[in-house]
## 1
Amino acid sequence: MIQKRIAIGGILHETHTFMPQRTRLADFQRQSFYEGDAVLSAMTGTHSGIGGMIAAANDWVMLPILYAAAMPSGIIVRAAYEALRERFIARLRAVLPVDGVLLALHGAMVSEGIHDAESDLVAQIRGLVGGETPIVIELDMHGNISNRLCDLADVLVAYDTNPHIDMYERGGEAGQIMRRLLNDAIAPTHAYRQAGLLLAPQYTGTGDAPLLAVHQRRAMIEQDEDVICVAVMAGFAYADTPDTGVSIIVTTDDHPQKAEEYAEELAELSRQQAHNLELALRSPDDAVMQAKGADGGPVILVDSADNIGGGTPGDGTDLLAAMLRHDVQEGTIVLADAEAVTKCHHAGEGAVITSSVGGKTDRWHGEPITVTGTVQRLSDGVFTCELRDNPFASFYGDTIQMGKTAWLRVAGVNIILTEHKTPPFDLAQLRHIGVIPEQQKMIVVKSAVAYRAAYLPIAAAVIEVDCAGLCSANLSRFDYKYLKRPIVPLDSLSPS
Ligand SMILES: [Zn+2]
């Protein structure tokens, strides 16, 4: 038997189109960038989607093309995207002919002038391999998918979990579907629906409303033997494109009517479930007053709009301003501000200084605030995580380096200024410089989820706050230009 020749690779980026900074080729090269055989040596045995595809390959000749991924960030510079695409296409051309193409893509990649970069890439791949060669794609469930991409691919598979823990399994599933296609065992036909629904990332957990019920029904539908797979796409609300939002892709084995019915049902179900979404966000003033009145402490004030893990600068000032306005005693906030830190280090411990702090990176995270206070303590910003089995320490290492750091005390508020932004995943971040977290009345955390392991055990209460920021759950803060309207929740629900 002649072995099948399967090309494998991917270009992945979750593009936040409202971020002012552009993403460059160097951002991919610094993070994940492999070409040719390096794709196999780097990805074999990993829990990634590509890892799952490789494991499913067994008797195929794998033809590794290119794999590039960068952390969520702003729009990709056109020349950078085109360079990635041209390198991908040149390497694919060099290994032709192929019997199939397996791709791992995100689905929310945007370049300058290209809203739907995945379709642009796959159209070129399709042009090269021809209409008869199967293309199976694994997507991140945060992709904003177009009907064009559905038409270009044979089958689209998507992660079913958030936090994402099934990339490997879905990659393996993509491999199994490829095998059935190569054996002419299936004739895929798909239905695609946009739900007319926009979800902030905070509301895309698959263990909570609205997606939990949709995935429970999805799992039942996938038991139908006429169904090949169902992709429930939560979308990425911070990518402003005509395809942004929740979409459903149902692929059946030659049952187009069934595909349409299931896709319609799941789109309707996701809209219904979104009616139950409670926006529990408090204004900064309300949150601070509530924390002041709470029994004990510390109350954790969650600023998920300035979620450092989502790519924001960590210098948002809305809650600092509110704490100062309300004369808070023992309130703590960490701000990344290299300029203010340098000022503190020049002045020395015990000095009284006046400085503007925070709000310096862009115009999205509040204004810089001018404060006068005492430099309580200076440090090199190096601390060892105190939380055992810290999931973030396994990623960053046990010893964290925040760069030069200073504790500036302004009235009753402790401002910890750091040279480099650092997510709030360990209490040693405060303790190493002398601020005792357990003795605070309130603590601001710039995070959506990462703070929980360290801060929930000491929290008297947790309040989600509606601050200014590029990761805000309040989507009305964003000025969408390309989004298809009407869409829930930006536009009122149409009467049925
Ligand atoms: Zn995702």
## 2
Amino acid sequence: MLASNLHCRMLPSAAALALTLLGPHALLAQEATEQLRVDGGRLYRGLLELGEIGREAGGGAMRMSFTPADMAARALVSRWLQAADLQISVDAAGNLIGRKLGANADLPPIVLGSHIDSVPQGGRFDGPLGSLAAIEVAQTLADRGLQLEHPLEVIIFSNEENGKTGSKALAGEVSAADLEREVVAGLSIAAGIELVGGEPEAIASLKREAGSIAAFLELHIEQGALLEAAGVPIGVVQGIVGIKRWRIEFTGFANHAGTTPMSQRQDALVAAAQFITAVHRIAKSMPGRQVATVGKIEAQPGAANVIPGRTELSLEIRDLEMAKIEAVYASVKAAGLLIAEESGTEFSAEEYYKSEAAPTDQEIQALISKAADDLGLRQQAMPSGAGHDAQSIAQFAPIGMIFVPSRAGISHSPEEYSSREQVTAGANVLLQTVLALDRR
Ligand SMILES: [Zn+2]
């Protein structure tokens, strides 16, 4: 009911009093809403309380999606969503959704969200921060009896850590095979979705069309140490990097390590070694923030007294632009071919994985940046090297992401930590960005 949302409270400031007297559309009074701040203490207490659910002796949270701990966390978060004046529902993918009507019924919703499931032995902030900050934004508006022009949606995405099921479902990217995968031993994603009230067989119906969401915003810990090192409280995310992976092979000739003179060898491991350093050098020497990694190597036959005849390596390249990934790869491949020629081996490469880059919306980046400026918070533009729910939403809607520092860049660990001040700053930027988007 719309009318019941307008339970105005008397607030001390003159601006808030004016808002109270004018009713919901007073939200358009920009000057007054620019003074709105989240309750950082409430947000931080929520993070600590949620972080206790699934906590184990080692200190980490075992809250994999659809496990009893995740269900308990969903129940707690459902109460918070309702307290923030949001109407809750669970969709076919098991996403927990809180909705509030907008003053203008013709507008598509502004959507905020993240996830509350964790990796085994996870921390308190990866996911919960974006989820609870979204609820805190809704609660802050509800506390003042304010209603946005746009509908407001908070989505707690299901199973982020084990396949981003909930957010991928909205982009129509969940396959039947994805649903059969296990989250934990003996529990498939499909069975888990049913446990939380979803309908895995109807998951395809969730696909949202372009234009169905005005904007999607996710606040997240950086999961890197750039912000901390720079002493900057806010990261304006330029996009989520694309990823490509290849299987690389050098084929030489396996022979006796004692009787084959150095000049007659076709050593596949020596070629691989040169290749690894070439990958590092190329990615480092090109301008930009691309990263390239050889993370795995296997030499065959793998004996101390045999010259390696074959090596298999992994190659991964990430960047915000797929074209940049291709450019790095072109140089790497040229280096590989040259190394093969000089070492009497053969080089081959087979692509086996690709994840498209998800750029964030330029206008939303600018609004985030302005919100931080207005709050007196220093900021830095940066890519996200890790995947997030926002990535799938970018397939059909403009997205924005805000990062706050994570201590020592640690995540997916009980050591994950951001201070109350850092978390509050991020949530205030989120709130002010929502208000700016609503005014557009
Ligand atoms: Zn996350």
